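retry 2 of 3: previous attempt timed out while embedding D-xylulose. Reduced batch size to 1 and resubmitted. Inputs unchanged:
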Amino acid sequence: MTEYFPEIKKVEYEGNKSRKTLSFKHYNPEEKVGNKSMSDHLRFSVAYWHSFTDRGTDPFGAATIQRPWDEIENPMSKAKERARAAFEFMEKLGLDYFCFHDRDIAPPGDSLKETNDNLDEIVSLFQELMEDKDVELLWGTANLFEHPRYAHGAATSPNSEVFAYAAAQVKKAMEVTKRLGGSNYVFWGGREGYQTLLNTDLGLEQDNLARFLTMAADHAERIGFEGQLLIEPKPMEPTKHQYDFDVEHLAAFLRRYGLERQFKANIEANHATLAGHDFHHELAYARENDLLGSVDANQGDPMLGWDTDQFPTNIYGTTLAMYEILRNNGLAPGGLNFDAKVRRESFKPRDLFAAHIAGIDSFAFGLKVAHRLKEDGVLEEFKQDRYSSFREEVGKKICQNETNFDELESYVIEHIKEPIVLNSGRQEELEGLLNSYITTTN
Ligand code: XUL
Ligand code: CO
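retry 2 succeeded.
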């Protein structure tokens, strides 16, 4: 059998004293953190599109990445070789999951029927490879943004035939996700948004998006798909204003259309920062609203205002992310999907391995720090104390919804002596404390 990455051996855990770049310093899959193994906590997934179909193009330049399968001319043969290489990659890294768009894995044909036949043939190969390499599907999705028919959007296109086509495409993508035992199905907004309100019926487009998602949820039920349905917020790019702007917009949208029980969020770090939030904010907001479903693990560059999809190497960020994930009792059936790509200058296969290793280790390290922080309870203890006035007297009545403005006015007149004594927020002390956890974890 062909070996696609012969220069790379199986990547092993060597501990944090090792200087061997292609080894794990922190990720030791079977090691227990609390009552779960690291691999059960982290549920790492590779993104098929970035790691196996992307070739390093950007608006200014051609492909810089040439993988062994790129030389094959016949599109179906190429898709099969790419799949075999992808599963060798996952096995060598010990990745448990992968994610894909329908069009990443199989080439389109001349009709929807032919396209679906191609997809089915490749999915059969995936079934064999998944079994052979012991890899599972974290989520599947449909690419509703690349083909020119989706120029004005898919579910929010002004053209009803495009809406219908998108529905047919999602129907099939959900069915193959089910066939592959996927744990989740993702809807990222693609081109669901607008470039200018001068030509856009905002109300109809939002209603149509909700109609589309309602039909998708109905279909999932009809075919017996038991995975989570996830919507991935993003504020802009490719459109000026995407409808699923951030988790807060998503929560409002779901409640407005009565979809809050059917959908959760797939939160991407770089989308959070594009929305002017940090990743920590989006995770915390989702957790508080019972919407934290899964994560697209990556990072942006603070100097660049677009979705650079870099591998997550900022351990401060991964620590805070893991803290929220632990507070959520984990992510399962979601996981941590590396929706990240190597820079176009990093075009060697070794770079693809090194990038994943750096991301995996950053999250494994973040998990260890976050676990200690949570076990010691230092932040939660501080918060308990900070809000303690809401557990007694007037605060208790406020929280139990047992008071009103009249009563609060009387309370102020009778009991409150000015100036009201406030406590310090102690932000810098807590930041120092967090740093001390990071610097003492190994
Ligand atoms: C786009 C993005 C997508 C989705 C899947 O910014 O993140 O890759 O994750 O369609
Ligand atoms: Co994503």
